[in-house]
Amino acid sequence: MQYTKLNNSEAAVKLFKKKLKSQDMFYNKKAFPQNESGNEAYFKCNSVKGAMKYCPSRWNAISEWFDKSRQVGKVFRKGF
């Protein structure tokens, strides 16, 4: 309710869940290409080398996530 500024709990939860599922909450700015999804991608992209070679969009997204995670870790180690 604090995040959504709504007084109704049910409406606030609904809006918050919608926000969590929105594209801006993900590190990929658009949907992954078809060749980077499904069973074939699962087998080709299940290692660092494979991901870098066969799934560059997914690799870029996870790399950005790694960078952000390291930044957050530094903040917590410093104690804010």
Commentary on this structure:
The chain is an all-alpha fold. Helices cover 62% and strands 0% of the residues. It has 2 domains: 1-25, no CATH class; 31-78. The model has no long low-confidence stretch (mean pLDDT 89).
- Total number of β-strand segments? 0
Order of helices and strands: HHHH
The largest sheet is:
none
Give the terminus-to-terminus CA distance. Answer: 25 Å
Q: Tell me the β content.
A: under 5%
Separate helix tally: 4
Number of separate structural domains: 2
Radius of gyration, whole Å? 17 Å
Global outline: flat
Poorly predicted runs of 5 or more residues: none
Helix amount, in percent? 55-70%
Mean pLDDT: 89
Which class best fits the helix and strand makeup? mainly alpha
Topology diagram in text:
Layout: H1 9-21, H2 38-44, H3 48-54, H4 56-78
Offer a concise description of the structure.
With 80 residues, this protein is mainly alpha-helical. 62% of the residues lie in helices and 0% in strands. The chain is flat.
Properties at a glance:
80 residues; 2 domains; 4 helices; 62% helix
